[in-house]
Amino acid sequence: MLLAVLIANSEGNILVERFNGVPAEERLHWRSFLVKLGADNLKGVKNEELLVASHKSVFIVYTVLGDVSIFVVGKDEYDELALAEAIFVITSALKDVCGKPPTERLFLDKYGKICLCLDEIVWKGLLENTDKERIKRLVRLKPPTEF
Amino acid sequence: MAQPLVKKDDDRDDEEYSPFLGIEKGAVLQEARVFNDPQLDARRCSQVITKLLYLLNQGETFTKIEATEVFFSVTKLFQSRDIGLRRMVYLMIKELSPSADEVIIVTSSLMKDMNSRTDMYRANAIRVLCRITDGTLLTQIERYLKQAIVDKNPVVASAALVSGIHLLQTNPEIVKRWSNEVQEAVQSRAALVQFHALALLHQIRQNDRLAVSKLVTSLTKGTVRSPLAQCLLIRYTSQVIRESGVNTQTGDRPFYDYLEGCLRHKAEMVIFEAARAITVLSGVTTRELTPAITVLQLFLSSSKPVLRFAAVRTLNKVAMTHPMAVTNCNIDMESLISDQNRSIATLAITTLLKTGNESSVDRLMKQITNFMSDIADEFKIVVVDAIRSLCLKFPLKYRSLMNFLSNILREEGGFEYKKAIVDSIVILIRDIPDAKESGLLHLCEFIEDCEFTYLSTQILHFLGNEGPKTSDPSKYIRYIYNRVILENATVRASAVSTLAKFGAMIDSLKPRIFILLRRCLFDNDDEVRDRATLYLNTLGGDGSVVETDKDVKEFLFGSLDIPLTNMETSLKNYIQNPSEEPFDINSVPKEVKSQPLVEKKAPGKKPTGLGAPPTGPTSTADTYERILSSIPEFTSFGKLFKSSAPVELTEAETEYAVNVVKHIFDRHVVFQYNCTNTIPEQLLENVFVIVDASEAEEFSEVGSKPLKSLPYDTPGQTFVAFEKPEGVPAVGKFSNMLRFTVKEVDTSTGEAEDDGVEDEYQLEDFEVVAADYMVKVGVSNFRNAWESMGPDFERIDEYGLGPRESLAEAVSTVINLLGMQPCEGTEVVPSNSRSHSCLLSGLYIGNMKVLVRLSFGIDASKEVAMKLAVRSEDENVSDTIHDIVASG
């Protein structure tokens, strides 16, 4: 299960937070844990360089893209490698929507589109689409090109 | 709060602030009224939906009324033909997840979209419908979903398949009917469709071994189009291998070649999955393991942290079972200690701790000391656990390891970390007698400056039990009494109890203890005063030196043999019904109420350890002892010698799950059958096991205790007791039949019908074997123990073990046969070695210490010869050990 996708700005404020199968009372813990993890480790990291952490049986893969930091959390079959795949899809889609690694402002300007992309990528904790070209078409309700 | 958005159309790049600056829920809900306009402005509506999404993604919640209102307004947007808006509407409905009574308003629009000629409407409508649907609606749309699974458009097919995966949790019987379509989708040329179909098909058929095996066989020969699907296939293959075992004739393992081939796949994800699958094969041989270890080793020096992490994590697991296989990677691993990523560094350290040999311990400890200062507590705990295991493996190194633990105990750290260190020291004291005195002193020093009440009380309790047995108990008194002077009431009360224990055990200290206890009578806390008064009275506080009688010691040291929950209930009842009679502790029932399984599962569900700290572990032996002593029929059996690990008597996923724990007493054995009823529609009553002991001649049944009731998902126990000749390691085979009365349960009300039907259920057989009479007890220094045992009852003989798979396999077979504790890491056989010595220690029934020296040799034709030397406290026991090996 892909437990969470969280996107924060450089100050650690949450921009997008999507949880799957995480009880409401634990979400706050996760939010602060991830933000702290980012604050401790993401300084000076290059765009899209993946960092990894694990806590008991849960894995976290995170990175920076422009002004935003992206975290994905998973367990069981969503181990560090599957999460790396998921975060790769997310960063590609973000770059595609924003045209470049986004500033915070640009990210918020494209907020609606970004939500649609995330909706195509992760559906209730399962990875659904992995190809950015296809995602780009799907959010505009266009069928995939290979079809 | 639309102001920032109004400005948005100006020069965008100059705007520094957020378009959502000052966003406020009430205002956005007002704005959402625009959805009701007769002339819809699609762009404006999309903007408002974006704001609503922003609020929801920030963790904002809508009240029921707010959500309903927004939902109804959003449904109006189906009238718009704007494609972008329609996509937003689909997302918004999913986010709002309307309640069952509201769904109806949107179903017709969605059903229309689901049959639309526009493919993308279909895909999205399926996803939304499946998100909000319930069972009845699902039956209505089932036909369309089945069509969608085999739709030409991969997005439609994927939408239906992923919906199926989610729906399988809530409506399994419906989704299982789709297996033909899903089977067809597995053959799809679209990579993602195949991936989703494979996942769903496996979930549908996971309990049908044959079907899974067929699926794996056909796909491993065919084409799998995406790395994700390939990973799934490897996982399922691994499951099939686990269930089928090795081909005994050829020694080949089915599908091994497939796994090995995947090690050369171009996707790293697949390589890792295959390597992991190989490392967890049961009884994996060095030959099978080597290619997997080699690829993992290459990844250790990858530039990508994720790959380094994945590699070191896998090798860390391998090191637990096959430390020698990982030693080749030690050099790469050592360079990872300085990895910037602390997770990787911690895993590298703990792996090295597992694979290192005795001579490398000191060097490693030096490296770790530098490393500890810059990692977080959660990593430190992992390191502490690894050091504890290392110390148990190399007891001779206890000095440097214990020193390390005491040093880190003095440094800064949170509760969990300190608790891990204290727990480790306690375990080392228990298992390594030589480490006891220094360990206790380290703990004493720690409580002088300990900020955690829980830890102080735990240590005081432990000190009370162990301190009096040391060579100079008086030196601990100062530390304990300091707590009475300096600490909070809880710790003071604990310290008083500890003082009393010293008084009870050591007569010469008694007068001094009484003086200290009398001072506690003036404490300002009533619990402390009460305890002091109680102990002074029980110990005979008049100052005369008399021997403390057995009852008092039992009172001070014995555990409360009543479950605390029962005690609590009884006390509550007593308070509710006031009475003249004093409360009688004997009126508290001793029977342990079974815990509903749901509660037990709860911690497992927690994806994080960030919540409350877990409660301290109670040893299973204590729990068993408590359960057995609460059953009057078994109280006369004396002290429990050993309880085996549970042996499963049913396969996984069956109607009733039963396992058995063998409790060994001097003249009796008790079988504890742990039963779980996994059928919600059934209540089982009067559950018991009929045991056929015709193949266990020396055993005769003397009693049993049925289980009154076994509701769904609430485990319960039933017991059967047998008598056997005293001190004899009687062995035999037992066949079992579960009998019960089954009653139907109405799952909506939870009520069971009055009438039930008698039924029975065949369980698997199990055996009582010689190893059941041996407790694994390690010794810190085998050589000393061997010398001090002396050669009086030594028995030596030689055995031919015939052709074996490997030396390691022969060693582990003999260890398992005897059920003894391997000492000093001698259970690990270096690869390619032609001879090996193994040291074992244990406690045989009758509390007889036994030490064993095994020397193995293997020749070119894989014939293994073994020399067995036994020393014990009784010649019969030494002979018995030889008998066990000779007959095994």
Describe what you observe in this structure.
- The complex is a heterodimer of chains A (147) and B (888).
- By secondary structure, chain A is an alpha+beta fold.
- In chain A, 41% of the residues lie in helices and 26% in strands.
- Chain A has helices spanning 24-41, 80-98, 104-109, 111-121, 132-138, and strands at 2-8, 14-19, 51-55, 58-65, 68-75, 122-123, 126-127.
- In chain A, strands 2-1-5-4-3 form a 5-stranded antiparallel sheet, with helices on both faces.
- In chain A, helix 2 (80-98) packs antiparallel against helix 4 (111-121) and helix 2 crosses helix 5.
- In chain B, the strands form 3 sheets. In chain B, strands 1, 2, 3, 4, 6 and 8 form a 6-stranded antiparallel sheet that branches.
- The model of chain B is unreliable at 1-14 and 594-618 (pLDDT under 50).
- The chains are: A alpha+beta (147), B alpha+beta (888).
- At the A-B interface, strand 2, helix 1, strand 3, helix 2 and helix 3 of A face helix 3, helix 5, helix 7, helix 9 and helix 14 of B.
Helical element count of chain A? 5
- How far apart are the termini of chain B? 82 Å
pLDDT average of chain A, as an integer?
91
Task: State the helical fraction of chain A.
Answer: 40-55%
Order of helices and strands of chain A: EEHEEEHHHEEH
Tally of DSSP β-strands of chain B: 18
Largest Cβ-defined interface? A-B, 62 and 67 residues
**What does the main sheet of chain A amount to?**
5 strands, antiparallel
Beta-strand share of residues of chain B: 5-15%
Number of helices of chain B: 38
Task: Please bin the fraction of helical residues of chain B.
Answer: 40-55%
What's the Cα radius of gyration of chain A?
Answer: 14 Å
Spans of chain A of at least 5 consecutive residues whose pLDDT stays below 50 are none
Structural class of chain A: alpha+beta
Radius of gyration of chain B: 34 Å
Give a count of the beta strands of chain A, DSSP E runs of length 2 or more.
Answer: 7
